[in-house]
Amino acid sequence: MKEKKRDIVFLRWLPLLLICTYVVFPIYWAVNTAFKEESEILGKSVTYLPKNGTVANFVDAWTNVGFDKYFFNSLKVSGISVIFIVIISIMVGYALSRYKFKFKMAFLGLLLAVQFIPAAVLLVPLFNIFNGVGLVGSHIALILVNVTFQTPFCCVMMRGFVEGVPYALEEAAMIDGCSRIRGIFKVVIPMLVPGIVTVAAFALIGCWNEFLFAMMFLNDPNKYTVPIGLKMMQGEYGIHYGAMAAGAIIAMAIPVLLFAYIQKYLVTGLSAGAVKG
């Protein structure tokens, strides 16, 4: 019995503790730094809890640095991008699941293959294209990039979710007089809610954290998103660590709150998508 308990500790709890420490410690350190005064942050001694807690860093980041603009710009770009990604993913996922056509598997393989293309390879061509049509410097360019790069994987995920919906339910609806389009809206989409939430969550994380293309396409400080705002906080002669840590906490707020709220849908969606596909 003692050997069994020891095995459980070393094989289960100890690895979990190490992984949790590895994941949580950077977040803890960011929170710790965000509530410290600048003199304490730059002091010679390391403190693991703020001596004189302050919210001045959050106020500074939100008002003086301009994180209020960055935050709402990211919210706007990510929200619009996710709407388009989810709509396209539902249509493509449904087509890949329900219809048989030539080169279906080749198309599915192509959707997966494009994920292996490094984004940096397409940076210059996309910049030339957007510059030619006058989109450089606008959020539209970033939205198009987000939709382009996030949609293929989301379509593959959505295909698995659609296949989890029995086709017999659609047939029963069509027998009762529903058209295929109406059957999709009345039968398929309500049953796809966990899958839609899962796809939207993954797409939102990718769009929210987009840095490379945002750095290349946005040249107006009033249109910067959160990742660019964090980068701009690194000054030429110094770094305001407290405000940067506060900005990082603000940047994490949306993903953390989102996953906390949709956790039950996320688990259900991932389980449903793993059954078939």
From TrEMBL:
The residue ranges crossing the membrane are 12-31, 77-96, 103-123, 192-218, 238-262
Q: What is its main location?
A: membrane
User: Where in or outside the cell is it found?
Assistant: Cell membrane
Matching Pfam families: BPD_transp_1
Membrane topology summary: Multi-pass membrane protein
Q: Which residues form the ABC transmembrane type-1 domain?
A: 71-262
Does the entry feature the keyword Transferase, yes or no? no
Q: Which UniProt keywords apply?
A: Cell membrane, Membrane, Transmembrane, Transmembrane helix, Transport
What PROSITE patterns has UniProt attached to this entry?
ABC_TM1
InterPro entries noted in UniProt: BP-dep_ABC_trans_perm, MetI-like, MetI-like_sf
Q: Which domain of life is it from?
A: Bacteria
Family membership:
Belongs to the binding-protein-dependent transport system permease family.
Q: What is this protein called?
A: Carbohydrate ABC transporter permease
Q: Which organism is it from?
A: Faecalicatena acetigenes
State the taxonomy lineage. Bacteria, Bacillati, Bacillota, Clostridia, Lachnospirales
